[in-house]
Amino acid sequence: MKASSFIYFAGYGIRTILFGKREPVLGTVIVTDKCNLKCRHCSVNNITAVVHPYLQIRNEMRQLYDMGVRILFFCGGETFLWRDGTRTLRDLVVEAKKIGFLIVNVVTNGTFPIDLPEADLILLSLDGDRDCHNAIRGDTYDTIMENIKNATADNICLYMAINRINKDAVQDVCIAARDTKNIRAVSFNFHTPYPDTKDLALSKEEKANCCEAIKKMMKAGAPVFNLQSAFPYLINNSFPTPCHQCVVIENGKVSTCGRCIDVPGLCSKCGYFFVAEYTLLFRGNPKIIIEMLKTYLKYI
């Protein structure tokens, strides 16, 4: 992370903690909900299958920037499906940097060639070993691993959503993150149970077991982009929600924290590690503050 970016985020954090401000710093633009996969745990793919035009997305980026957002994510659907004439996802990342976003990340399922060195991080979904991953996402594991091997930069962060199918494969993804070229780290979430995927939700005991597995792999040198201090809050779903410092914009609609905020009762079952980490950070939790500083300086 650049020194100027660190100074900006440090100042933002201090102001937010001391004065209880709610201005967002992290924003997500949904460029499309169109996706080439039909993953068992996903509730938001191909609802409209609309690919939003470049000018609309640029305006949404500027809107987020004017709100104070400086960490930007591009999400889908599948982001690498985004096209507008000759423009591709790279054009969006480059434009975001020109606008002034300090960190620009992309989320992808990894089934398309990964040639995007301009992004700070590419969060790539890998949901276990070959068998577990393919049970959730179809026969895509080998394609994804080949795309990772052939990626043009080492800016990949694996992104695993832990559910009842893959809960015993945490170690496998940690080892892949540690031992595979072009992978910088791995980030975890627990499955957030939308009404149509409740059967995949983890019990409190299963969450605790997963956290122990993650901690064990961290001690073994796995590059985990999550904060151990937040684990007890995630296990018990005792962190405050929603995260007012995060926003999502999709087709002009701005939502606090994420799209799931519109589903009654879902916030109380949130499994997003970053939501726990950010809400605890901005409540001034000292362990979270120290651990986040170390983690972000290491991996971004």
From the spread of the alpha carbons, the general shape counts as globular
The radius of gyration over CA amounts to 18 Å
Low-confidence region ranges? none
Sheet-strand content, in percent, reads 15-25%
Could you say what the CATH topology is called? TIM Barrel
Q: What is the CATH C-level name?
A: Alpha Beta
**Major β-sheet strand ordering:** 6-5-4-3-2-1-7-8
DSSP summary, beta strand count: 8
CATH 2nd-level architecture: Alpha-Beta Barrel
Q: Please write the string of helix (H) and strand (E) elements.
A: HEHEHEEHHEHEHHEEHH
Q: What separation lies between the terminal Cα atoms?
A: 5 Å
Number of domains: 1
- Quickly count the helices: 10
Give helix % range.
Answer: 25-40%
Q: How many strands, which pairing sense, and closed or not: the largest β-sheet?
A: 8 strands, mixed
Q: Give the mean pLDDT.
A: 95
Structural class: alpha/beta
Provide the CATH superfamily: Aldolase class I
Description:
With about 300 residues, the chain is α/β, with parallel strands linked by helices. Helices cover about 40% and strands about 15% of the residues. The protein has a single domain, classed as Alpha-Beta Barrel (TIM Barrel). The chain has helices at about 5-20, 55-65, 90-100, 130-135, 140-150, 170-180, 205-220, 230-235, 275-280, 285-300; strands at about 25-30, 70-75, 105-110, 120-125, 155-160, 185-190, 245-250, 255.
